[in-house]
Amino acid sequence: MPFEPGSLTVRRVDAEHWALVDDLVYQGSRERFVVPAGFRTDFATVPRVVTWLVPRFGAYTLAAILHDWLCTDGLAVVSAREADGIFRRVMRESGVPVLRRWLMWAGVRWGALADERRRAGWWASAPGVLAITVLAAPLVVPPVVAIAPALVVYAVAEGIASLVAPTGPDQLVLPVPSA
Asked: What's the whole-model pTM score?
């Protein structure tokens, strides 16, 4: 395994973000990357409408954390295109099945197009991204067409419900031991 032995330990920062408790160290054949303790991640950044296909964590979790770092602080040492390629390679090394890792790679390349800091070099990978997108569309689009309206209906219902019964921050009240 290209990651140094030991378990990944994170602490919850908020509803969607986690922070590394310890450094996450990746040792490739030519490069070494250290994602520092305290780095914040959302694990795999996946649009909600496709989490049925790619959950936010799985066999690719360490690769996703490394990719998050490479696409932020790591852009000082690699290009966005290289970061996405490293992501795909690390997923392969982590045992992620071929279709999932290529779909995830295409997803992060599409994401790079929308991010000014990561857009450079996008057109060099465009033919592969477009080919994967076209091939994947018959598998991905039909469920998305069904799920997207349901998510909109749910968001409206949640908004209405929050007006009727607003929620506050969760509180845990523990009994105070008597002396």
From this structure: 0.84
